Amino acid sequence: ESDAPPLKKFQGDVRVIAQHYNSRPDVGVVQRQDSPIIGLKSFNNWVKSVLITRFAHPVLQQSSLVGFGGRRGGGRGKVLDMGCGKGGDITKWSKAKIKEILCVDIAAVSVDQARGRYEQMNSYFDASFAALDCYTEPLSAAFSPQKLSTPFDVVSMQFCMHYAFETEEKVRCMLDNVSRYMRPGGVFIGTIPNADLLMSQLAAIPEGRELEFGNSVYKIKFEQRTHHSFFGHKYWFYLQDAVDDVPEYVVYWDNFVNMAAEYGLYPTYKEQFHAVFTEHSNMPEFKSLMVRMKVVDANGESTIDEDQWDATNIYNAFAFEKR
Ligand code: SAM
Q1: Fewer CB within 10 Å: C terminus or N terminus of the chain?
Q2: Are 272 and 315 in contact, with CB atoms under 8 Å apart?
Q3: Can you list the positions of beta strands (E) in 142-257?
Q4: Is 165 in the pocket of ligand 1 (CB under 6 A)?
């Protein structure tokens, strides 16, 4: 049974977002292969694996949190997965040989599915799950002081941070949750839509037309061409077989970097997904991972068509260091 806050607690866009993610079915790994956008999904997973391997692995290896002996005693380091969804990254964290993970998301149904996925793994690491609006409430509302007493080495926010940019207050709450329990030298990694790309697409739309662009796979529709503030610049996002017209907000990068600095977080990496591909696809480790993750087939042929490939480049991958 879920210990989640009832959905009716949420208002406005937040309710639409939580309801949307709660209602997406958890189709499992096998049926997922039938998705019309399986190429895009596999590629996004590959990018997340690259980020985790490159930025999280080294930091985890230096963690002072070390497990000893026994089946559940192994592993090193502690991770916070904020906006974890259905726990799609839990296998990646298992491969990172962690000691402990805390997973949190506003969508209570998704959190239950993430917990279920972990329980089926019969894993060696510890995991805790909680439903929480991470952009209005502190982590301490969901986890005991004891759970939060050992600092995180890594905080991960995959495809979810942009929902905080509705208001400055929400971004501050989010950044406080990221930074408060992270050790100096820790890393904050994530994936968000690329504001420069969204803005240049928007600027290319002739006057008098609908503020809409996309292709057969995705659609983005703005309500306003320009916005008076760095927060709340809203658009509606549709992604085939994944996201049905959910409200999202532009993450103006420089503003985000300036705010993050107030929380001791400094950028070390920011690239569009296509650039992440160009940079890593010929490295032996990540090349073989592309085959294992079905980004390319056994003959080295891409599984992703042109419209899906264009859709992947909406996103940026980033890393920050805590000082
Ligand atoms: N990180 C997962 C992944 O990469 O598969 C899920 C990504 S999904 C596109 C976005 C997630 O952000 C959803 O699970 C949604 O419920 C979560 N989210 C949105 N607003 C949130 C909030 N205020 N607090 C916590 N999670 C939130």
Answers
A1: N
A2: yes
A3: 152-158, 182-193, 212-214, 218-222, 234-239, 243-249
A4: no
DSSP string, 73-126: S--B-EEEEET-TTTTTHHHHHHTT-SEEEEEES-HHHHHHHHHHHHHHT-SSE
The one-digit pLDDT tens for each residue of the chain (323 residues) are: 444 555 667 888 999 899 889 887 777 766 677 889 999 999 999 999 999 999 999 999 999 999 886 666 679 999 999 999 999 999 999 999 999 999 999 999 999 999 999 999 988 899 999 999 999 999 999 999 999 999 999 999 999 999 999 999 999 999 999 999 999 999 999 999 999 999 999 999 999 999 999 999 999 999 999 999 999 999 999 999 999 899 999 999 999 999 999 999 999 999 999 999 999 999 999 999 999 999 998 888 888 999 999 999 999 999 999 99
Model pTM score: 0.95
Ligand 1 atom at shortest distance from the alpha carbon of 242: 9
Q: For ligand 1, pick from 16, 163, 315 the residue to mutate: most ligand atoms within 8 Å of CB.
A: 163
Backbone angles phi, psi at 35, to 5 degrees: -60, 140
Answer whether 21 contacts ligand 1 (Cβ < 6 A).
yes
166: CA distance to ligand 1 center in Å? 14
Q: Cβ atoms within 10 A of the Cβ of 34, count?
A: 9
281: Cβ contacts below 8 Å, ≥ 6 apart = 287, 290
Residue 111 CB less than 6 A away from ligand 1: no
Whether the CB of 130 sits within 6 Å of ligand 1:
no
Most informative mutation of 44, 79, 109, 160 for ligand 1 (most atoms within 8 A of CB): 160
Q: Are 46 and 292 within 8 A, CB to CB?
A: no
User: DSSP per residue over 224-267, as a string?
Assistant: -SS-SSSS--EEEEEETTTEEEEEEE---HHHHHHHHHHTTEEE
Residue 309 and residue 141: Cα distance in Å, rounded?
40
